[in-house]
Structures are given as C-alpha cells and as structure tokens.
Amino acid sequence: MMNNLLSSIEKIVGSPGVLLGEDVTSRSDSWPPTGGCQAKAIIRPASTREVSEVLKLCHTAGQSVVTHGGLTGLVGGARAAEDDIVLSLERMHGMEPVDVINRTVTVEAGVPLQRVHEAAEDVDLLFPLDLGARGSCTIGGNIATNAGGNSVIRYGMIREQVLGVEAVLADGTIISSLNGVIKNNTGYDLKQLFIGSEGTLGIVTRAVLRLRPLPRSCNTALVAIEEFEQVASFLRDMDSALGGTLSAFEVMWNDFYKTIVGDGSKHGTPLSPDQTFYVLVESTGGHEDSDKALFESALEEAFETGLIVDAVIAQSKQQREDLWAIRDDIEGLTKTLFPAIVFDISLGIPQMDGYVNEVRAQMTERWPDSRMVTFGHLGDGNIHLVVTVGSYDPSEVQGVEAIVYEALGQRQGVISAEHGIGLDKRAYLKHSRSEDEIALMKTLKQVLDPKNILNPGKIFAKPEGTQS
Amino acid sequence: MMNNLLSSIEKIVGSPGVLLGEDVTSRSDSWPPTGGCQAKAIIRPASTREVSEVLKLCHTAGQSVVTHGGLTGLVGGARAAEDDIVLSLERMHGMEPVDVINRTVTVEAGVPLQRVHEAAEDVDLLFPLDLGARGSCTIGGNIATNAGGNSVIRYGMIREQVLGVEAVLADGTIISSLNGVIKNNTGYDLKQLFIGSEGTLGIVTRAVLRLRPLPRSCNTALVAIEEFEQVASFLRDMDSALGGTLSAFEVMWNDFYKTIVGDGSKHGTPLSPDQTFYVLVESTGGHEDSDKALFESALEEAFETGLIVDAVIAQSKQQREDLWAIRDDIEGLTKTLFPAIVFDISLGIPQMDGYVNEVRAQMTERWPDSRMVTFGHLGDGNIHLVVTVGSYDPSEVQGVEAIVYEALGQRQGVISAEHGIGLDKRAYLKHSRSEDEIALMKTLKQVLDPKNILNPGKIFAKPEGTQS
Q1: How is residue B138 annotated by DSSP?
Q2: Nearest to A185 among B185, B243, B416 (CB)
Q3: Tens of pLDDT, residues A381-416
Q4: ipTM above 0.90, yes or no
Q5: Could you say which DSSP state residue A36 is in?
Q6: How far is B90 from chain A (nearest CA, A)?
Q7: Does the beta-carbon distance from B185 to A217 stay under 8 Å?
Q8: What is the pLDDT of residue A255?
C-alpha cells in the first residue's frame, strides 16, 4: 500500500522507480551485505530533474531520505530506519565519452568506479582514485564520502580529482557547477560542501572528473627496516629521489607481517620476519628503462646509508601482485584476529610510533590475551589498527575504542582518515573536532537542510526533541 | 579622535595596534600601491585571540572590517571605504620550525610567502605555491584568495597545499582545525569554507602547510608549434612521457611572442617569430642525469611525430632564466599595449582556440586599431588576455569586458581563474555562476556573517537597503 507521498513520487519516477515490500527488505544497507533494509520504500530516480522533484515533495512533507550508492561504506552511513525512504541512484549510470583533450569525463553519480577506470584506460588515461570496492562503489558515493584509497600519496583524495559537481539540495534546488576547469576562483567553491558530507547537505547527481596520463612503468619493492625513524627517513628520501613518481608507501609493523607470511602461508616468506618494519614501496612513471634504473639506484642509496636492511624487488607483474597480496590480505588478517575491531586513523608521522606503542601497552594491560596489528598508508599519515580482545561485547568494544581514540585525541589525530563518521563513529567525533567546529558543522546542516531530511542522524545525532 | 569602539579596541590590541589619520591615508589598499586608504582606522592585532576579541566588538557594533594581507590582489578585494576599519595581520608573522618528518610548517597569516619558501629550502623541502608577488603577499592572503601561480599543473592551487586552517568567524568564534594530516574525514571539511572566500566568511589567522621534496633537477625548453591541436597533443604527450615530473606548460600565442622578442628586444630571438604558438615546457625531478635524458627523449619524440617544429633547450641556469623572462615580461607587454585591460580566465582546452579567435574577431570589428595578446598556463586551462583599445574610458572597458565574458559564458568558462572576484569582477559573476549558485553563496554569507561585517560588498553587492 502506498501512502499519498509515495503515490506522488511514483508520478515522477514511474513504477520502475519505486520499490516496496520484499524488494526493499531483501536488500541490504550496510557492508558486508546482510539484507534487511528497513526503509518504507526505495526510490530510483532516472535523472537529476527527478531527484529534484522527489526532494521537493519530501521537503514539503518532512520526509527523511537516505541516499544509496554502491553500499560499500564502512561506518553505517547508508543505514535506513523504518520511517526513512531510500533514494538509490542506481538508474543514473550515464557516462559521457571521455574528453581526451581536456582529460576529463562527466558521469552520473551511479556509475561504478571501475567503469571510469576502464573508460579512461581505453584512451591511455588514468582515473587515479582506487580502492578495493572498485567494482561496486559508485562515483556519487566516492564523492559523498571523499574517498581515499591506494593512490592518495601521489594524487590526493577524490576531492582533488573532482572538477565539478552537480548536487540537489534538500528543498530540490539543483546546484550545477560542472565547468570542469582546474582553476575557478569565481566566488565560493560550492562543490567542497558536498564532497565528504556523507549525503547530509545535498545529493550528488553528476560530476566532472579529472583524468591523468596512464603510467608507462611500474616498479615495486618490499623492504625491511629496523627503526621507526628510519621508516620516516626512507619515505622522505624515496619521495625526493623518485622526483614525483612515488605512488605507494605502505608500511606493515612486524605484528602484521608475521601474522600474514611464514611457513604454511600462501604468501611464503619473501623477507625474513624478524625485522621491525616492512615497507611496500612503488613508483609509476613515464619511461620503463629509466624509471627502473632510478628506482633501483634510490634503493641502493638507502642500503648504503643503512636505512634499509633487506629488500626484494618485483621482477615481473606476478611478483608485484604477490607482494601486494601480503599488504592486501585483510581477510587472512581478520580471520586470525577474530573477532576483529578495525580502526582507520590519521596522525602526524612524528607521533605515530609513540602512539602505537602506548595503545598496544594499554591493550595488553587490560586484556593480556589481546592482539593488535598495525599497517597503513604511512605516506599519507594514515594507519589502520586491527585489534581483537576475543569478544564483540559492546562494553569491550567501547573499551577498545576509548583507548584508541583518547590517545589519538591527545595527539591531535583524527578518528577517521578515509571512512567517514556515519553512524558508527559519531560518538567519537569530539576527539577530533572542537565544540566550535561541531557547532559550525551543525549550523551548515541547519541552513542547508532546515527540516533535517537528508541522511538524518549521520555524522551527528538528530537535534533534541526529534527521534535519534 | 577615537570613538568608543576604537577605544575599546585599543584596550585589546594596545596602542601599537591602532593606526589613525595619516598613518592610514598614507597607506594603500590596492595594487599597484597608490596610497589613500580611506578606512577610519587600521587595527593590527598580534594574536588570534586579539583578532577574536576585536571581531566580537565589531560584530556587536555592526562595524564593517576589511582584512589586509600583503595587498597584492588584483581585483579590489582589499579596498576599504570611509566607514570601514581595516584589520591588518602584519604583526602576526610567527612561524614554527619546519617539521621535517611530517613535512609541514605551521605559520601565522601575516607571514610572507617567500619566508615559507626559504624556511622549506633550508631543510631540502619545497613549498610549491609560487607567484610574482612572493616577497609581499602573505600566506593568509594566499589562502583567502586560493592563490594559484606557476606550479599549479604539478601541485595544484594552495587549496591542495593547506592541511589545516585556524580562522575567526564574524562573531569572534575561533575555528581551529590545525591537525595537519593529509587524510581527515571527520565531518565537514570546514577549512574549505575559508579558502578562496576573500575574507567574507572568516579571517584566516594560522595555517598548517604541506611541504614537498625539493626537486634535484630542472629541465626547460622553448618550442614552436604550428596548430592549436598540436599544442594540446604536445601537452598530453609530455605529461605522459615525463611520468609525473611536468612542472610548467606555458603557452604564448604568436601575438604575445612577437610583441616581446625581436630585433632591439632585450630578449633577442631564441626561436624565429613566425610560428603560431610557443610553449615554455619544464620538468623538475629527482635525478639530474636521468631526468635530462628523459626530457630530451620526450622532445625528440615530439619532433619525430611532427608535433613541434623548432625547439631550444636551456643549457644553463642563465639560459633557463632568459627563457622564463620572455614569458614573465608582463611589464614590457603592458607598456606596448598601453592602456592595457588584463583578463584571467579558464575554459576547457577544446574550446580555447575557437574562443580566442572569436574574441579577437569581435575586438577587431568594433575597434579596428585594437590589439590583443594571449598567453597562459594552458596545462591548467587558464589563459590571460591583454587587450588595448587605446582608452581607459569606462564605457570602452565595459565594452571589452562584455565581449570577453559573454563569449566565455557561452562556453561554460570562468571569468576568474585565480585572481578572484573582489569588487572589480562582481558585475560579471553571473557569466560563470547560475542564479541558484549565487543564491547559495549568499545564504552561506548570511548565516556565517549575519550582520555583513566581513569585507562587505566583495564578491557580491551588499543586500538592498544597505550601502553598496
């Protein structure tokens, strides 16, 4: 049975645009997918105009709207309650041809990231944003969450890959800023409002993406290092020696490396597991021979100055993939550390080693049998902690979170480097943001979405007097 | 004589913090400096706390405030009227030591750009923002105007070099987001509000800047090209072949080149002046020998495929500077084209040639003796037009502006690539922004500065019913 609002919406989006009943509950709204979306309907507009018309109705009715992209977020940002409707952009997957001269492509929000990769590569270009969910996640979701991923050290977050955004405000107003130029100082840069605001300030419907040259070379090595200070020096030296071609600098603490490699592991033991740190370092450039020579001479220099104690250089595409498989074996990791609690944090490199040691000591003190492994995009100041205390009991999980976030807040660290806040981290936002910052965020939310209909309760709780 | 407000302000900033009378009128508020600042006082706070206290008083009193940095802006953004007070950040020039591990530096807003360059270079690092005004312009002004300059093709605008900002809102609230990490998805990225908003949404008082490795090599060439399409292909090929080290791609149309070089010119004639386009191309990297080889082989490839017809490669630092002196001889240019009207626009590369030709044709039709030269950072989609019609008569200037901006608006171009809007371009904002975009900008302004005290009348006119 449809109520009046849903009937009016159906007139806009047509009957393929409205899903009800089992078509809703059989879907998921979180990752890993579990089924059981609670929303009263899933609305699937086919154009920006339809999104606008639907939002106008919802705004008038005070109807809350949770926007769905590829549903690969990790912080509950897409979770919907019984009184929400879901607005899915899955039918908006149009893509203009790549503009090879301007090196841009204009896409609708529902286009999966991988389709952009493929379209760019077809014309020898690169869309540098890359993450594990590439086949499912959508450009709209990537923008709404300011996605990071594997190439940030070289190219930055998606914020730096987006030249223009079209978004619909809560009241249906279409803000279309699709110039697609790199330099645009004509008043406030409105697209910044929508990037990373997790669907709470507007719904991104289209974007102009910046493309880069497709690299012609790739050089990869795994190295072992004794001291944290040497890791930081090695990062600085490689970045300097490689002259702009450093494309990955992934650090694994010994606790990570030892968990993944070794006798019986599918990964073997490319370097002996008795060093303190392991770094996967990679460069991509324009010329196969000279880039290889430069990469190898930079590594040799690091040997000679004593920064690294051991190294293996990939000699083939297969060897490269084998090295990356160690860093990417999150499945193996979370199996060994079941039940795992995963953190995605940023802090200054000078604070990092002391921070990790303090957190580990506090964990061990409270849970003598706990385990913690550490790894991450050190070049971006971003590390992941995976912790297990043998239980998912909420009070235990909160105990772990308190240790991790409090030590972080003391060091001006941030509780979410790339995953966002959503529902799951909003209680901890105060460790990374001052009261005045949070108040200003709420002011922006209030003025752009006065009826609080866009993804309400995400990032911060609904205002008092409304349902939380 | 001081009124009550100024007396109260003096209690906060002390007597060195208040300038009156001739100390005000002998100063300038525009560039080139002309003297004659009209403001009723210049207030010079010494700390963020003092800025906050002063703004609290001004907010209560409804007193308008024009913030001054290095006064090198080109759009009248710092101009003050008789009923304004000026808030100059010249006494806030503190700078923390460079953090060489994190590769960041925290500075107060009044620090001149060049001091940041020097501090970074002392420890083998680079702050990549660079522009002609480097000795005078300040980091606060750079951030408030989202400065671009010479290195945008490689490193982006200052927006991409700023990791954290401290700013004071109109009511005195201090928003301090100085984490200094690259990845920070903890709620809305508030610093984006202040970057490029020309002092209308808050006053930037401090920032954490991101530093990069200091390049170890630099290769520079001037090349000649016959067709515009070949210029675009040459950009794409060089960017690809140089694998991330392309650091400048400055294009001069024949009309520019012929005006600057030739018999009797101090620049001589490094390449014959009968080609259609001249490109100054540069790469900076990590290794002197291999970067030189790569640069030369990329140029050879361009010769072989017929993209370029002539080239000269700088063989010394002096030769490099001589080539740049051609591109940078804006003084020589504006002397020849006196009285000059200068434009700073962006548009898609595919539209660029047709646009320039259309504007030139319209100019010639209306002013048969007019002259126009074209050049710019083509790699960023940003070109400059310098036009003379023999007069600075306002109706003539407006006639030129109408031709330039209307043809631009039709192509989704932007009327200000890097200089901003200020006072001088606000009448043309509508050519680059829709009514809904401008309305949203005004909404942000209204909520962040409800009494319209921060740089009123800049970007858009004051609301009706107030002084414009």
Answers
A1: B
A2: B416
A3: 999 999 999 999 999 999 999 999 999 999 999 999
A4: yes
A5: -
A6: 25
A7: no
A8: 95
Mean pLDDT, to the nearest integer, of B120-129?
98
Q: Which two tokens stand for residue B95?
A: 């700078």
Query: Under an 8 A CB cutoff, do B436 and A175 touch?
Result: yes
Q: Which residues of B touch A154 (CB under 8 A)?
A: 244
Contact A205, A141 (CB under 8 A): no
Q: What is the pLDDT of residue B468?
A: 42
Question: In terms of CA atoms, which chain B residue is nearest residue A159?
Answer: B160
- Indicate yes or no: CB of A380 within 8 angstroms of CB of B420: no
- Tokens describing residue A105: 């492509």
Long-range Cβ contact pairs of A53-58 (< 8 A, separation 24 or more): A53/A12, A53/A172, A54/A9, A54/A12, A54/A13, A54/A87, A54/A172, A55/A168, A55/A169, A55/A170, A55/A171, A55/A172, A55/A203, A55/A453, A56/A171, A56/A172, A57/A5, A57/A8, A57/A9, A57/A12, A58/A5, A58/A85, A58/A453
Q: What is the pLDDT of residue B32?
A: 76
Give the closest of A185, A377, A440 to B417, CB-based.
A185
CB contact under 8 A, A101 and B232: yes
Distance from CA of B331 to the nearest CA of A (A): 24
Q: Are B436 and A175 in contact (CB under 8 A)?
A: yes
Which one of A236, A447, A460 has the shortest CB-CB distance to B443? Answer: A447
Which chain B residue lies closest to A169 (C-alpha atoms)?
B440
> Which among B160, B186, B350 has CB closest to A415?
B186
| Pairing verdict, β A277-285 and A246-253 | antiparallel
Does this model's pTM top 0.90? My answer is yes
Q: Which residue has the higher pLDDT, B309 or B2?
A: B309
Enumerate the β-bridge partners of residue B176. Answer: B166
| pLDDT bracket for residue B139 (50, 70, 90) | very high
**pLDDT tens, A147-167?**
998 889 999 999 999 999 999
Contacts of residue A316, Cβ cutoff 8 Å, sequence gap at least 6: none
Strands B41-43 vs B85-88: parallel, antiparallel or unpaired: parallel
